[in-house]
């Protein structure tokens, strides 16, 4: 029996997930984190598969569904199947077929990563809110200096955006933490911070976001889920989900979003 009314749209589902996620105990929080990162799997997976992905028992995942307002997993799955019919790529099936044909050759690996990248790019238009993108561009275009931070897997994205801004004459500073140097005090009123981080979230990135946000300086974040800890710091978030192959996750969609944001900011500054 559902405890509250079930969400009737994907937008409503995301809002409900955001409302309840911070109050959940550890096991149910694992469910929330996994669902937020893998919404595309709900329509094509069993409750056992979703529970395994979240690292919990199926009974715990069913309880999670009920907390969101559904009678069970089937009702939640129905929402996603109806919302994405005809338009949502079943990447799990596609990658499974590729793995069956793969023999470990470089060309087979190339096919797998191309498929994962293509599927990530297809999903980008669904994860990025056009209004949020417009607001992020306005924030960065109005900044006297754009400070950019991204660690580990996010570093190629952060460094690329610093390069792109430099080429377009946009004042920007890349925070790399090289030599354990902490440059957060270089962020001044009138500036903006652009943070790039994905689960498991970089502690260095979260620290500087928290410190900068506390001073009232705007933060734009490229991250992966609606339950990202960056939400706690009032960051303007742009969501991007990358399909993984094995233990590796490409940056195809993330870099596409990065170049879009960079060019849009550069263009807006020229117009102003």
From TrEMBL:
Residues 11-87 form the HTH rpiR-type domain. InterPro entries: Homeodomain-like_sf, HTH_RpiR, RpiR-like, RpiR-like_SIS, SIS_dom, SIS_dom_sf, WH-like_DNA-bd_sf. It comes from the Bacteria. Residues 136-272 form the SIS domain. Keywords: DNA-binding, Transcription, Transcription regulation. GO terms for molecular function: carbohydrate derivative binding; DNA binding; DNA-binding transcription factor activity. The keyword Transcription regulation applies. One of its GO terms (biological process) is carbohydrate derivative metabolic process. This is MurR/RpiR family transcriptional regulator.
